[in-house]
Each structure stands twice: as structure tokens, then as C-alpha cells.
From TrEMBL:
PROSITE patterns: TAT. InterPro entries: Metal_Hydrolase, TAT_signal. It comes from the Bacteria. The keyword Signal applies. Residues 1-37 form the signal peptide. SUPFAM superfamilies: Metallo-dependent hydrolases. This is Amidohydrolase. Keywords: Signal.
Length: 436
């Protein structure tokens, strides 16, 4: 698998040359130039005052659409220092995502005017090649979506036929249900598969797929709700000159491109100001209106409405989990409680294990009471037997419940039974299912 080797080559090669060229052309001290910072810790202080690192008064604002702040970055660059780097860079806003999401929440809390959060599905660094096979990733994303607000899901890495695996499918579904943008580090094939799953998806194609301008053009032509970031590539604007093929593409699709640093290692957070300066240099070679669109207007037009719409859904998303009925969920009511539940996968078949996610909301006199426990089981009323296994039910951080290990071992009529202990009494709710 050489996709990642390709990126490493870029780390060592193209951007370094691009940054060095820029630095030389601008007569800057090389101490703060991006790639050197990775090798010389002394150069990492975010207060390094070079002309490029200062907030350029009147300079073109930049929306950096590709920032990560993962768990191993916090000690290297503290939250306040990251915000300081963003402000020095003259960033108008940034799309931020982080492995385990905590870093994104830290930056958002520190600078809500600057940060637009995206939910990265990874909990730790190193999951980017395995996540699509790991059902826990879907659960992690569901848990975070229940607790926080976002504009997007991503950046995730997904190639070819992997896009049709159950976990990526669930992500596409969650993005659709929550009206979130998908930030996909993908090849054209995976992008096509995402659009086949959800023709209404809004996809931000990370790095424009590291693809050639003619292939990027073909994909943009086919999909009106596809955008591309130019993060971590430099051939479109090396040396402050826009490459002719890219210039044609930018003119043909003026509202689809945006820029980004891609801080995929902690040290790269120090490059944010250099990247902004480098972007301004090549954008200056375009007509002003087009440069402004690519610099910030396109990103803002795509991401800000998504962020504001999600944020408007309230700061306490779990206050009444039964008030919302996400697609694929069902609500059951008794006198004393409501349950909103869905199965994972959505389609349950004989012989395949599945999970149930349920929110329990006491009603009537019990409204607001604590749900002490929930048992979930399934029986065949006509056969007077249950399942062969006892499902495990646990409470999730967002207050909902998750039952694992359910399996219908034969076709026919099954009853799903929910038994909730609400304060001092028991609520029994059930639903019949035909299973084939
Ligand atoms: Zn990235």
C-alpha cells in the first residue's frame, strides 16, 4: 500500500521546495520555514516573529480547511499556541478535526469564532488503515454526534471498494441524517461510491484526491455537491505562479476549491502561518475575485451554514433524546415511557448478529426520572423461546443504551422486549418484527 508513502514523499519533497522557494523569494529567515521546524525543535516556538508569521493587516483572509489537532499534539503545541498560530496566520476560520475529537473540542472552546469542528472517526493515531473494518468506529461517531455539534464528518481515509463496507456506509448515513459534510481523503472511485450511497451527499475531497487536474475536473463535472481542498499539494501554485491546467480548472469551477495546511503531524501546526503566506503568494496570480473565493469564500459558503444549522439544534443534544427521530429509528410509547431505538445494521437478517441502540424517556408522572437499567431481549411468541444468547446492554456516555450480541437464529415472528427500571417501577415495551 503506497498511498501513504506518496504522502511521505511529499513531506520530504515538494512542499519543502515550495516553502524554501517562497521563503527565499520573500527574503525571509529560514528559521521559521515549515519543514525545518520538524527537525529543529528550537524553531518551533509559535511566537517566532517573521513577516510571514505576523497577522498581515489587510492581507487576504484565509480559511484553512484542513487542520488536525490529535491527542499526541497537545503536549507539542498547547491549545493557546495553536490559536495564536492561527491568528498570526490571518486565518478567518479553520476546519478542525482530531483523532479522538478531544483536540477539536479544546480548540473550539478556546476560539469559537475561528474553529469549525469536524468529527474525525479515529480514536487514536494509526487507525486510518483499519477503521473501515471496525464497528466500534461507527459507535464512536454516534456517541460523539450525540454529545457535540459539528459541520462535517472527517477527515477520513477511504479508497475504492472499501467505501461500500458497512462502517463507511454508516458514516455516510450519519452525515445524511445530521446534514453534515463528508471530508474524504479518497480516490475518485471511493468518491463515486459515496455519491452512489447518497446522491445528495456533500463531499469535501481532501487534497483533491492528489489527482491530476483533468481527473479532478471530470469528477467536479459529474457531482455538483463535490468540493476539493488543495491541502498538502503545491504543484498548482509553486513559486507563486498558478499552473496553466489548474488555472483553467479554477476558472471553470470557481466555487469548488479551498486551501488547507493539513497538520497531520503535531509539528506541522507551526506551518499554519507559512502555509497561509504561501497560499496568498499563488492566489495573487489569480483574478482577485477568484482568489478570494478559493482563499475563504468557498469554504465558508460550504461549512458555515452546516455548522450553524447543527449548532442551532441546541447545546444539550441529549436533553430529550426521544424528541428527535433520526432516519431509521422507531419510537414506542407506553404510559410511563417512550423508547426511540434502531438496529445496527439497519437491516436485520436471520443468523447475523446485530446491535440495538435505544434511548429511554420516562413520561407522565415519571417524566425526568432516572432510568436505572435497561434490559433488551427477543423472543418468538409462537414458539415460546428466546434467543440462544443473552445480549449485553451498556449505557453509553450520551445516556443512550446499547445492546450487543443479538441474533435471530430462525426466521419468523420475533418480539423485541425492552424492560426499563425507572425510579421505583418497571416499564415494559415491545415491538414485533418479521424476520426472514
Ligand atoms: Zn488530513
Amino acid at each position: 500500500m503506497n498511498r501513504h508513502t506518496g504522502i511521505d514523499d511529499l513531506v520530504r519533497g515538494v512542499p519543502r521546495r515550495a516553502f524554501l522557494r517562497l521563503a527565499c523569494a520573500a527574503g525571509l529567515a529560514l528559521a521559521a520555514a515549515g519543514p525545518l521546524a520538524a527537525q529543529t525543535p528550537a524553531a518551533q516556538t509559535p511566537t517566532a516573529q517573521t513577516p510571514a508569521a505576523q497577522a498581515p493587516g489587510g492581507a487576504l483572509p484565509i480559511f484553512d480547511a484542513h487542520i488536525h489537532y490529535s491527542h499526541d499534539a497537545w503536549d507539542v503545541v498547547p491549545t493557546a499556541a495553536v490559536i495564536a498560530l492561527m491568528r498570526q496566520a490571518g486565518l478567518r476560520r479553520a476546519l478542525v478535526s482530531s483523532s479522538d475529537d478531544e483536540g477539536t473540542q479544546r480548540l473550539l472552546a478556546a476560539a469559537p469564532d475561528l474553529v469549525i469542528p469536524s468529527l474525525r472517526p479515529y480514536r487514536r493515531r494509526g487507525e486510518l488503515q483499519t477503521w473501515m473494518h471496525d464497528p466500534d468506529v461507527a459507535r464512536h461517531v454516534e456517541d460523539r454526534l450525540a454529545r457535540h455539534r459539528y459541520a462535517a464528518i472527517g477527515e477520513f481515509h477511504l479508497y475504492g471498494a472499501d467505501a461500500d463496507l458497512p462502517v463507511p456506509r454508516r458514516l455516510v448515513q450519519l452525515a445524511r441524517d445530521n446534514r453534515l459534510v463528508l471530508h474524504a481523503h479518497s480516490d475518485a472511485d471511493a468518491v463515486e461510491r459515496i455519491f452512489r450511497q447518497d446522491p445528495g451527499a456533500r463531499v469535501l475531497w481532501a487534497h483533491a484526491g492528489f489527482d491530476r487536474p483533468e481527473n479532478v475536473r471530470a469528477l467536479l463535472q459529474r457531482h455538483r455537491t463535490l468540493w476539493a481542498d488543495l491541502a498538502f499539494r503545491s504543484e498548482h501554485g509553486a513559486g507563486g505562479r498558478v499552473d496553466p491546467a489548474w488555472r483553467e480548472l479554477f476558472a471553470a469551477f470557481p466555487d469548488r476549491f479551498m486551501v488547507g495546511t493539513d497538520t497531520f503531524t503535531p509539528e506541522r501546526l507551526h506551518y499554519i502561518p507559512e502555509h497561509a503566506a504561501w497560499s496568498r503568494a499563488w492566489l495573487a496570480d489569480l483574478p482577485a475575485a477568484l482568489a478570494e473565493r478559493i482563499a475563504w469564500r468557498n469554504a465558508e459558503a460550504l461549512l458555515l451554514p452546516a455548522w450553524e444549522a447543527n449548532r442551532a439544534r441546541g447545546d444539550t443534544p441529549t436533553a430529550d433524546p426521544c424528541a428527535q427521530l433520526p432516519a431509521g429509528s422507531e419510537r414506542i410509547d407506553s404510559d410511563g415511557a417512550a423508547i426511540v431505538w434502531h438496529t445496527e445494521p439497519a437491516q436485520v437478517t436471520v443468523g447475523s448478529p446485530f446491535a440495538i441502540v435505544a434511548a429511554v424517556c420516562p413520561l407522565g408522572q415519571a417524566k425526568g426520572a432516572e432510568v436505572r437499567s435497561l434490559a433488551i431481549d427477543a423472543t418468538m411468541p409462537e414458539h415460546r423461546h428466546g434467543m440462544n444468547y443473552v445480549p449485553q446492554v451498556r449505557r453509553m456516555p450520551d445516556g443512550r443504551w446499547r445492546a450487543e450480541g443479538l441474533l435471530f437464529h430462525m426466521p419468523g415472528r420475533w418480539a423485541i422486549v425492552f424492560e426499563a427500571q425507572v425510579d421505583g417501577h418497571r416499564e415494559l415495551l415491545s415491538r414485533l418484527l418479521m424476520v426472514r
